[in-house]
Amino acid sequence: MGYVTRIVIIGGGPGGYEAALVAAQLGAEVTVVDCDGLGGASVLTDCVPSKTLIATAEVMTTFDSSYEELGIIVADDTPPLHGAPRVVGVDLGKVNRRVKRLALAQSHDIASAVTRAGATVMRGRGRLDGPQTAEGTRTVVVTAADGTEQRLTAEAVLVATGARPRELPDAMPDGERILNWTQVYDLDELPRELIVVGSGVTGAEFAGAYQALGSTVTLVSSRDRVLPGEDPDAAAVLEDVFRRRGMNVMSRSRAQSVKRVGDGVEATLTDGRVITGTHCLMAVGAIPNTSGMGLEEAGVKLTESGHIWTDKVSRTSASGVYAAGDVTGIFALASVAAMQGRIAMYHFLGDAVAPLNLKTVSSNVFTDPEIATVGYSQADVDSGRIDARLVKLPLLRNPRAKMQGIRDGFVKIFCRPGTGIVVGGVVVAPKASELIHPISIAVDNNLTVEQIANAFTVYPSLSGSIAEVARQLHNRKAGGQDQGLS
Ligand SMILES: Cc1cc2nc3c(=O)[nH]c(=O)nc-3n(C[C@H](O)[C@H](O)[C@H](O)COP(=O)(O)OP(=O)(O)OC[C@H]3O[C@@H](n4cnc5c(N)ncnc54)[C@H](O)[C@@H]3O)c2cc1C
């Protein structure tokens, strides 16, 4: 029998399980160690559950806007259709049961795929045991729930242990009224008055979703505007929509403490103001899962923020130890975690590997409207990091948007001044996550605005606006006139 490379992966989220699939396909002997279930936080508590909840919220938003824009009447006294009452409201217990069912099923599917690929899945908590041996191997100790330990030897270890919600000592979640984002799926009833602390992506997504489901929402944002890390024009659109729908967005407000008072909660802000609600969701960031893992003893360096330092092929500072995903703090996205994991395996197993390129990453904020971005950002252009021209067109001018009653949103594309090569873009629209793809393809393949403009789009369609923005950028380069059609 030939020599088989042994690989141990600690953490079964997208960083870990995608790496396991690749490594097994490349012929390695792979063991994935995970303490919660394959799919990781991504599948069990983060992406999958939140997007499943948001699927219900989206339908509610469509209903809510359907009378004003489309003339649809949905009233409590509408006669039942096929025996089902036509009342718009949400049974949150039912929604949450569906969320959990779907997450578990997805986790099982992933475990089956990983096992089918030939990898071994072990339930337990993994940690590195000291430095590399003279033979160039690493040891991982796996502690099962019952305390029993098992030692695994491997030529390479991938650490993909993810992150968990950050907690503030004076606002500790109790799982009932003060919640973090992993606990909201245990609610049986819709929070009547929800305070969301934190207006980053997670805070904004949940604030928008619960508002659509019927909660009265107060969003406590420490910055000037919501989504401080996103495109400023996009964030302005979303904040405007939030306020128009009745959300209380409190800018430049920082929560100091949150406590339970009777059947509700009370949040005290740093300026002394006190706000009350029935529930509070804390969304104040995440901290990497690095403690108790023997990282220091194994020679793995951490960054100032406590994440594992990695290079562009996912190597850590310790020979034979790679890291991927949220634990590296590079880009908290499932897609990036998966890419980092795959790159690590391609690199270690000697396959062709392209280093991680963050300038082609596309991401989406799942609010209504959605905000999708790819490549270089407005901040990159404004700070001079890249020389680029841009055109932004509101969706209001798009014929399909008019027919569908879509009023909020825009398409923005950045291209290089001389060549017209597309370097980035932003789409704010319903299903922007789907609409961003042509711009992603352009960014990834150095396509020009002319090439985007020349591809047919369906008439009428929202993607017509993408072609129109590209056309305007091309015309401006060629000194032509803006057409303004889409
Ligand atoms: C609310 C929310 C919504 C999100 N939505 C999206 C989205 O829509 N799209 C997107 O791309 N990203 C989204 N993200 C980000 C995404 O969830 C993360 O980027 C992704 O989960 C990172 O994957 P990972 O492999 O690094 O770790 P994780 O998915 O966190 O998995 C790590 C696994 O390792 C296990 N583990 C930890 N320590 C050990 C140990 N010592 N031994 C064994 N196992 C261990 C954990 O229990 C977990 O199962 C969202 C995040 C949040 C918070």
Explain the overall architecture.
With 486 residues, the chain is an alpha/beta fold. The chain has three domains: 6-45 and 99-165 and 287-359, 3-Layer(bba) Sandwich (FAD/NAD(P)-binding domain), CATH 3.50.50.60; 178-284, FAD/NAD(P)-binding domain, CATH 3.50.50; 369-474, Enolase-like, domain 1 (2-Layer Sandwich). The chain contains 13 helices and 23 strands. It has helices spanning 14-25, 40-44, 47-70, 92-116, 201-213, 232-244, 334-348, 378-382, 399-404, 432-435, 437-444, 449-454, 463-477; strands at 6-10, 29-34, 120-123, 125-128, 138-143, 149-154, 156-159, 163-165, 178-180, 193-197, 216-220, 248-250, 255-261, 264-269, 274-277, 279-282, 286-288, 321-323, 362-365, 370-375, 389-394, 410-415, 422-429. A five-stranded parallel β-sheet has the order 3-2-1-7-18, covered by helices on one side. A five-stranded parallel β-sheet has the order 9-16-10-11-12, with helices on one face. The radius of gyration is 24 Å and the shape is globular. Mean pLDDT is 94; it is low at 479-486. Flavin-adenine dinucleotide is lined by residues 10-16, 33-36, 40-42, 46-47, 50-51, 125-126, 160-163, 181, 202, 289, 293, 325-327, 332-335, 337, 366. InterPro entries: FAD/NAD-bd_sf, FAD/NAD-binding_dom, FAD/NAD-linked_Rdtase_dimer_sf, Pyr_nuc-diS_OxRdtase, Pyr_nucl-diS_OxRdtase_dimer. NAD(+) binds at residues 198-205, 285. Residues 6-341 form the FAD/NAD(P)-binding domain. One of its GO terms (molecular function) is flavin adenine dinucleotide binding. This is NAD(P)H dehydrogenase (quinone).
